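Example complex used in Figure S2.
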Amino acid sequence: MALDHRPARPPGTPDNSGGPGTAGSSRRGPAWLSATGRRRPNGLAVIAGVAALLYAGFILLPLGLSLASSLTDENPLKAESSFVGLDNYQHLFRDGRLLHSLAFTFALAAVVTLAANAVGLGLAVLLDRSSLPYRLMRTLAFLPQVLSGVIVGFIWRSVLTQNGLANALLMDAGIIREPIGWLGTPFMASLSIAIVMAWVLSGFTTVVYLAALQAVPRDLYEAATVDGAGAARRFRSITFPLLAPATTINVTICLITVLKLYDVITVVTGGGPASSTESTALYIVKVAFTQNQFGYSSAVAVLLLVVSTGVSLLVTSLLRRREVSL
Amino acid sequence: MTVLTGLTAAFRRLSAPARAVVAVIVVFGFISPIYLALVNAFKSTPEIAASPAGLPLHATLDNLRTAWERPDHLIQSGLRNSLIVTVSTVVLVVPLAAALSFYLSRRSRRFQATALAVLATGLMIPPQVVLLPTIRILGWIGLDHSFAGLVLSNVSGGYLSFAVFVYAGFLRSVPDEIVEAAILDGASDLRVWWSIVMPLVRPATATVAIFLSLWTWNDFLNPLFILGPLTGQTITTGIYLTIGQYSVDYGQLFGIMFLAGIIPVIGYLALQKQFISGLTSGSGK
Amino acid sequence: MRRKFFIAAGTALALTALTACGGGDDDNASSGGGTTTLTYLTFETPSLTSTFWNGSIAAAEKDVPGVKIKRITAPSTDRDGYAKQLQASGQFPDLLQSISPNNFAPAGLLKPFDDQWVDANFLLPKGNAVGGKVYIPPTNSQVIPLVFYNKKLFAKAGAEVPKTWAEFMTACARLKASGTTPLELGGADPFAASMPLVGLISADVLGKNPAWITQRIAGTTHFADPDVQASVQKYRDLIKAGYFQKNALSVKYDDSIKDFTKGNTAMYPMGSWLLGSLPKENVDDFGTFPWPTDDGSVVIPFSVGGSMAVSAKAPDVTKAIAFAKAWSLNPDNLKLLIETDGAFPMIKGKGLSDYGVTVSKAFTDSYALVTNKNTKVDAIGWVTNDNALPPGLNDEFYSMAQALFTKDDVAGALKSLDEKFDAAAKS
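Predicted assembly (1038 residues):
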């Protein structure tokens, strides 16, 4: 599922207060009762029901199965699996490779979120003009979001590899004498992944910040200028606070995207060198298919789910509170 | 933060031409990997080695032709399969999500909030968490490693959640009076939904269709594990499985990338306005 | 309403397309008496190209009427992982090239070959047997690793072909002094990165105790033992002395071959398959020698295999076995494997000359290592017989080789490997 963004609204939003028309209208009985109170056949309920059933079958049921499997020692090569209680979960804490993957995943999430937001805001401010060239440039800025993770991965891999385009250009330009091992050490490889993901997500953050910038009422700026506020002051006191909702969305999307990242890492480094760029999402798949431990893999998956949901909700609620206070 | 303030202030103080120059340089730098992929798709491999960043002076269509004429028909079958999966997914998600969203909007506030919260999980779940059980479930109903199975799992997951949320947002702007009036007139809920509400939330349908098409098209994990090599490859998994470890022939690589990536890019360029308005209407809320 | 029409039409179209393209279910088993289609999982390397596979498959198909092969290619060298992935989604291939049977045999997924046929045809019938059964015909063998060296660079540096470890270090020092990088490492690809470690442990530990791996599986020896530590420490010594290329961890296998054959490095410890990649123009510039032991005795890390396993669940197991047999024994096939992939043939009753191959002196010298009497040990992390490492351990072993390139903690790495070994062996 390449579900990287939800432009609609962040999860758990308190705005779920009723759909159309609840404001002001009285809550009547079930809508499928006609005015005379007789039941009518309700095609809508059927379709809605199908949708709900599908969702239950493919999200809720698998979650349950994952949970169940995490309590067993399920192994595809063994015919039977047995209940092992919380053994898998206890093992989680002693699993160095898992702990490293969590550290890497969250560090990546933090770095990428910061970078993508900084770049996005910078680009948005830079491109916030309405003439044609600027519109063109805004169009280009979103392009990283349009390419699939696999293509992004292959393009960046050919840029960053030992005798790739980056080194070729830098050496041609005389900036470096020897090729840089962009993917060569654990640190450099992690940095490279961060660069790629910040690039991808900057496409998104730029557009969102641009929209937010354009929504700021111009007369606020005029009033401030009349009052003698300089450009920096205007930005700090007017623009930045009003960008808060956009920041909330951007941060949430960045976090969610990195926490479930699979395709880009698989293509650029494959998790290497020495599992240093192995995100937890990658580790889940490795445990299942290289070590044949479906049960343990499910436990790691449950852990990832709990931690990602927790972090996302925490960050989102903090940001929303800031939105309100600003 | 101070750096940012200073920087943006500096941007704002730039004269118009200076700003334009800075903007062009920055944006070009930002886009450079795509630029590199694009120009090198039309150069022969030796030319790429000689001048990695230059424009194709001896532009050649050889890379594209080789990619297109591959005996395994990687590009053709990949594009065709991606199209099938994408269209099927979108065509099914739109009515399902819209119906569910409208149905929920007519329920009590608490019911709605609970339902939407449950749906929100679908958005946050990393797909790896449900991958194995999903494959198993598909196996139970005999749809494992099939297109129908992939479409089914696409339709029923986070995409559905996303679409429901988008519709929920737009449904607020549908005046309650119109809906009530139609019901009083004796129209069934289904009819109200289809004939009255759906036309009014057309922007939502556009947003859902556009983003779901893009994401399904670019999806990697699910087609890789659910479809499998025998059933067929989508364009994303096909590229990954074929290019694998050993092709360092940059010309060919970029040729394949170009043919694989050009369709979403063209779609985006043609529908830019809808993309952006879809994003911003959400962020505005 | 037009929109209604379009949506309905679109849905109908989509659904028809879906059913037309088939639920994708078993298009494996066609009619009973007609042609059976079998899926064959292969993998590609610079030597084993698409052309090679298609050619060898076509040749074997001719020998087995009624069989049509559908080839699938693993996306990376991790064929076992890919096969498991396919198994999980119900598409286990019918024929699997060069996998590790211990990953699948315990689950009853593979059909063994009959002992009579194996004994009649191969020099080492039980060379890669698992639990006494042969799941992959032992058609050829490999030495993993051999140390390939560039004669010209050696001459230029005044270095001599080493027999002992001390001589090896001297040669490295001389090469470095003459301005050549002594050792090549394909560090970006885990399997290539592991070669020096495989060489060290095979020479030092297994050379003195060939039953070491068996004992490790039984739990009486450990990776953290002093002899293993001392051996692995030598790897760190090589790294600290700067004998590998500086950016070794970012060099992919493909590039490492180019690097070495172009003469940028003097030595390359790699599987004997590299013999097939030596450039024809100056093939005699290269030679091989076995990884040096402390005392100069010859220890050959050895692995037998080279063919495919058959799935017990194939739609027509008899035909599948027949195809596998035909492919394994096909002389043209073997000729190609010898020439392009450095394979050492292990077919009974046939000598090298029987294949009509043209091979380099390096090949014949290396082949002598196989046929001569000397200490042969199992190449750790590569053999697929009872001494194969538990599932996932090859991965961890290769990963450790990469990690040790930048981290100096040999004791810690080996202890961690032991823990993972025990965990995997238990399950």
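Chain B has a mean pLDDT of 85. The radius of gyration of chain B is 24 Å.
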